[in-house]
Design goal:
The chain has 296 residues and is of the alpha/beta class. It contains 11 helices and 10 strands. It has a single domain, classed as TIM Barrel (Alpha-Beta Barrel). It has an 8-stranded mixed sheet, with helices on both faces. A two-stranded parallel sheet has the order 3-4. The model has no long low-confidence stretch (mean pLDDT 88).
Length: 296
């Protein structure tokens, strides 16, 4: 997959080149998702780790369709008028998780500003379907900001997912360009709210770098996240999914990623992943386990 486009494309540095993965279970997983009419963020967001995750028999499910009501300039998910909610999706997703033998299931969503509850009820139904079909399974949700609707946030938090994830994505200064329909302070409120209404539910957030931010701005975001009680943080390189998306301003070096990791650890995050190919759901189960061990 090409992550830079056009005449002014930057040359991919050596640390951004990866060996091809062996097929493994990739074809099997992809076929099953098609059979059950399920979506994954792996495909819809053109994740660079898709081959590795599919080959190992894992995937990050994406509910509520493949059409988002917002137009973030970094994201490969389509912006279009959404289709009606699929009431059977939670049960099919639980079936897929069972067939894949998953112990930690990550469920993300498109933003659905068209729905009265922003899709919160559907996320709750998915959590319930997974726990009914797979007792003991860990469920991690990666949700939108629900437009700041505290009722929607509370509904998901009170379903007590094993991890509640909401990504801030970038530094506040870049929001107008990167996430024009989102609000940095609102995202912090979402994360803080979980701790208020569902104490003990770990919270998680992530951001991309390479969009023109400074290291000091990234470290300020890390401090903000800890201030609202976030337990787990992920930091990865932004990769341009097409020529219509924001260009990469910089390929951040591994040394800078390690600086961010050291800062995050010094701030007290229970789980930290900071490297070029890190994504919010990459090795999510291992990160959740690591965070649990540090809490005990």
């Amino acid at each position: 997959m090409a992550y830079e486009h056009g005449k002014n494309a930057k040359r991919m540095p050596a640390w951004m080149r990866r060996p091809l993965n062996s097929p493994g279970r990739s074809t099997e997983v992809s076929a099953m998702l098609d059979e059950l009419d399920l979506n994954t963020v792996c495909r819809s967001a053109k994740c660079p780790n898709r081959g590795e995750c599919y080959a190992s028999g894992t995937a990050t499910f994406m509910v509520l369709g493949t059409r988002c009501t917002r137009n973030c300039r970094f994201c490969a998910v389509d912006t279009a008028r959404p289709l009606p909610r699929d009431a059977g999706e939670p049960q099919r997703l639980a079936e897929a998780a069972e067939r894949m033998g998953l112990r930690h299931v990550v469920v993300t969503m498109v933003t659905r500003d068209d729905l009265a509850d922003g899709g919160a009820g559907h996320v709750v139904a998915t959590i319930e379907a997974l726990r009914t079909r797979l007792p003991g399974v860990r469920v991690e949700v990666l949700v939108s900001d629900f437009g700041g609707d505290t009722g929607a946030i509370d509904a998901v938090a009170l379903a007590r997912p094993d991890v509640f994830n909401h990504n801030v994505e970038t530094v506040p200064r870049l929001y107008p360009e990167v996430r024009p329909q989102a609000d940095y302070e609102r995202s912090l409120v979402v994360l803080a709210r979980v701790g208020e209404v569902a104490p003990g539910v770990p919270t998680k957030s992530g951001l991309m770098v390479g969009l023109g931010e400074s290291p000091e701005e990234v470290e300020a975001v890390l401090a903000d996240l800890r201030a609202v009680g976030v337990d787990i943080v992920t930091i990865g390189q932004y990769l341009r999914p097409s020529s219509t998306h924001l260009p990469v301003a910089e390929f951040v070096t591994p040394e800078v990623f390690e600086r961010y990791a050291a800062t995050a650890r010094s701030l007290g995050f229970a789980g930290v992943a900071s490297a070029p190919f890190v994504r919010s759901s990459y090795h999510a189960g291992e990160m959740a386990e690591s965070a649990e061990e540090r809490h005990t």
